[in-house]
Fold:
Amino acid sequence: MVLLDAAKGCATEPPNLDLYPADFVVCSFYKIFGYPTGLGALIVKNEAAGLLNKAYFSGGTVAVSIADIDFVKKRKSVEQVLEDGTISFLSIASLRHGFKIIGMLTTSAISRHTASLATYVRKKMLDMKHRNKKKVCIIYGHQASKVADLKMSPTITFNLKREDGTWFGYREVEKLASLSGFHLRTGCFCNPGACAKYLGLSHSDLVSNFEAGHVCWDDNDVIKGKPTGSVRISFGYMSTYEDAAGFLKFLQSSFVSKPITFSNGLDLVDNQSQQVVPDVRLKTITIYPVKSCQGFSAQIWPLAIGGLKYDREWLLQGSGGEILTQKKVPELGSIRTLINLELGKLFIESPKRKDKLEISLLENLTHLTAEVDVYGQRYEVESYDDNVNTWFSEAIGRHCTFMRCSSSKNRSCSRAVKNGRLCRDTRSKLSFVNEGQLLLIAEESVSDLNSRLSSSNNGNGKQRVIVDAMRFRPNIVISGSTPYNEDNWRRLHIGDAYFTSMGGCNRCQMINLQQNSGQVIKSKEPLATLASYRREKGKILFGVLLNYEDGLDGEGEIVAERWLQVGQEVHPSTTATPEKMLGDR
Structure:
């Protein structure tokens, strides 16, 4: 028996069943017409139809059945037996329009058109080279090098390499492509055999990857130096030369290293050397008590072992145990918070609730204590009563549980990594933050970003995008520095409080969300512009993460409470190692 998977092939060059006899052929109308999704067909050879005997039946597939005894007579024709329940008749009705277009264009013309586009793109991709002359694109398939053959598939499967020979992960490619308006597919495409073959993954590699936590659909795109999947682009009858040229331009600008140019041949700067830092001041302090909800500003605020006191000490958990953030629940961005230290209370407001919620900061919760996992970090949490949970459930329109962090399992690491910077798993307590305890944003870096946003929008008819520092949800904003000077800081002290830089903050689509009169506005900016000049090893960096290093003394005892105040001078250093930093306290 022969089963032919023609799901994609039917879109550009349907198989000739006289030349390639098959008993069963599957095709996808979505891949042929681009609409509707989730609708395909199984073409069955009459002689093979009798082999399709289902052990079960459902509505529409039987002539008669008796409920309380084992008596059923199935319908006679194969399509009546296999089409369970109500078929998607509205989607089926729309297929006539797709077939009409195919009939007008003819499959031979579509095949020539898509093959020409794919051949052009494939050749240009193979010609792409980094400044050190190494190839950028690795294309998979039996005929990957025979670019002159117009019978090649209109599908190109590939991975991309950096100039040092390491791989760009397919998730990084997918993320940047989405920002540039290209939709492509990544992963193994439900074809594990071909995936393992062309990526050179042995059985032990596949098992090892699984044991390391890699499963289908996750973000582990490179493990132990090998890609776990690839990128695939496809051309159809509606694809144009402009589409192909635009995609090549995207690859060139996003993944191909550029030749180094120097003004007068002398502008070489060592970022690791001690730099003259101007008068830098603390401009704003912002605390976010509830993860992903609005924060509030303060002129003066105390520090605790976990950073700013009460920062991200509460969160909301969904009914399925998932942690709720603005990525999943944009309504969280409309919930306002405020802490009054004198009253010892957290006040919470929502436009969907008339009453203001008051939470005691000092109350000893008697409700169930449990452990939750937040992005790989285990926390002991305390929950609140049903009245509080109901308030939040109505505020965001879904059932949830309000929780407070009582303690975290401190991550410990005393080793230093490249450039003398501590590893992310440093000895510190984390509340419900993703990585570092505090996020620092420099006003000058935001100004530089806005100038780039303005330049990219000039003359293209698009509305000008301007962002402020608060779009990035910083804890502290500084002013008086130079753009991106904070990237080079290894440590800093504000007043009598010392902080260690944990490196740049990896940005995601969340910075593209903007709250406006209760409505969430989504765009591609500023992430798309940041991706054009702030990308490093698959991460789009903006702002730096800090850990507060004065919460404990050398004996593990809590030291006197320190405070940050707006207007304080910020003293950064670019050369001190962690050991020196500990020694001059």
Observations:
- Residues 262-276, 409-428, 578-585 have pLDDT under 50 and may be disordered.
- The two ends are 78 Å apart (CA to CA).
- The longest strand covers residues 497-506.
- The CA atoms of residues 318 and 400 lie 5 Å apart.
